[in-house]
Amino acid sequence: MYLRLLFLSFFNLVLIVSGASNTFYIDPIHGDNNADGTREDPWKTLEYIVSHPYIQSYSYVLPYNPKHPQLQVKNSGAPIQAGDTIILRSGLHGSLFLRGYVNTSNITIMAEEGQTPILKEVHLIGCKNWVLDGLTVSGEPYREKVENLVFFESHNWHGPVSNLVFKNGTVFSAEKPWTRAEDWLKYMGNGIRVRGDSILIENNQVKNINFGITATGYYIRAINNTITNFAGDGIRVLTTRGEFRHNFIRNCYKVNDNHDDGIQSYTTGGLKVDSNIISGNTILNYSDPNQPLLGPLQGIGCFDGPYNDWVIENNVVIVDHWHGISLYGARRCTIINNTVLDPTPLVKPGPCWIKIESHKNGRPSTDCIVKNNISNTLALNANNTRSGNNQLFKTREQYHRNFKDVSTFDVHLLKNSICIDQADDVFAPKYDLDNTPRPQGQHADIGAYEYSLSTSAFSSTLNRDFSVFPNPSSSYLMIEGPTGEEVHLYIWDLYGHLLQSHKASTLPSKIRINKLERGTYILLIDKLTNSDSKYFFFQKE
Fold first, then answer.
1. Is residue 204 part of a domain?
2. Which contacts of 448-455 are long-range, i.e. CB under 8 A and separated by 24 or more positions?
3. Which residues constitute the domain of residue 168?
């Protein structure tokens, strides 16, 4: 009898998971909540749909028991079920608040192609298997301040969150940054806050906020996100076995007493933060030295360890501070092929260092590797630590002799740089920050970038006028630049073949790259108002 019941339960689960999926539409302008949710007859708002029994799922029996979790059916027979997709059209959709929706497979909520659905906030508690794709989240259109614009929350009573995805989104407290500290303090909220496991935050634009991305839990990945204009920390790494790759963090605003970091971690409160990968990120104190409320930014600051088995590689950190990369209480950590510089190395606070120090309780750091880095200084107070093949630059004159254009934060190597072919190949990552294979010469190069003939003729993505993200990307590029700037966009392969062209009457603009094969390409931005052109390399995944 037990085997028969087990078989029937498994058979029913297979039916749930493998059944045909459906697609539903929501349109705040032309929809009706009494409609049937089809493309031709859409519902009106997402907030209404999720606050009424339209979604069949499961919820934990409360209170949640982590030793013996139990599930019960929720909204049996509702139209939206596991595997389905909800398509949102332009307009105000209200808040997305889900508590206790554990799906057997993903339910996807996504923006329709060419549409801009706007949510006031996203808050998921005790949920599993949700994908949120292409959503704009901001309280500004609703004239409300939102403390946490996107919040995935595990809860002692309602249960954990896991297997969630938030990608291709735009998250902001305000469309433009404030110029007065009192306005920042009054209106800013946090961008994306995650407290859960197995969560992906990818290809998002987060801007004009307090803290950018805060990740607490296990197996959290933040990849290809751009965090622009922040008053707290760009990213907080409070996770174990997390991956934080190719994020672009820039423009710190000093509005309070917080010690701002591009990427920060700590173990206060019993947090465990082991085996994290910090790779290919770019951290800029500022992109405009005349930015209002400009203050010093710590780069990668890890002051309250222990930090076990971290890998910090291929990062560019350009900050007005001593702390370029700092680990206090490090064990078996690897810091390799990073470029860490102070834009004004002779002005305090600074110059930048790569530092490994004892834990604040006096316990020494040990068994670390510091290789192939560029920095202003090194400060390694650690036992049994291997270092070497690091290059120290102390003046802007040395910058100009070795880097492409420090004034625009382009720290690609010049062809006569003393860093070329000087790295330890045993420790150098297989690819550099641009995904250029190492080595290009006899040996790998020191720093985050590998010099190659194919990339030496063009400007990098770190350009004061324009930014291109996400990079790498699998589906699209977003081009940001001066508002109202009319440009022509061209995509070339590395052999000089023109593959795409697109005229953008205003910026920002999005260009699709989903039909390109995997590899490295060149984006040319040609200003129509003059002869100025900018080149950017990007990677299609």
1. no
2. 448/280, 448/314, 448/315, 448/316, 448/337, 448/338, 448/339, 448/374, 448/411, 449/339, 449/411, 449/412, 449/413, 450/413, 451/412, 451/413, 451/414, 451/415, 451/417, 451/420, 454/494, 454/520, 455/412, 455/537
3. 40-172
Among 364, 361, 451, residue whose Cα is nearest residue 404: 451
Report the number of distinct structural domains present in the chain: 3
| Same domain flag for 484 and 437 | no
3-state SS of the chain: helix, strand, coil percent to 5?
10, 45, 50
Beta bridge partners of 369: 334, 386
Determine the Cα–Cα distance for residues 275 and 369; give it in Å rounded to an integer: 15
Question: Which residues partner with 55 through β-bridges?
Answer: 80
**CA distances to 88, 158, 249 from 117, in Å:** 6, 28, 25
Token pair belonging to 411:
């720290």
Instruction: Report the CATH number that the domain containing residue 487 is assigned in CATH.
Output: 2.60.40.1930
Same-domain status, 454 and 526: no
Q: Band of the pLDDT at 382, cuts 50, 70, 90?
A: very high
Residues 348 and 491 in one domain: no
Q: What is the pTM of this model?
A: 0.85
* Residue 288 in domain: no
Q: 403-405 and 391-392: which strand pairing?
A: unpaired
Average pLDDT over residues 222-241: 97
- pLDDT tens profile 390-423: 999 999 999 999 999 888 889 999 999 999 999 9
Domain boundary among 172, 203, 227: 172
Distances, alpha carbon 433 to alpha carbons 280, 365, 413, 414, 487, in Å: 5, 28, 12, 16, 27
Residue 401 — φ and ψ, nearest 5°?
-80, -15
- Indicate the average pLDDT of the chain: 91
Coil, helix or strand for 23?
A: strand
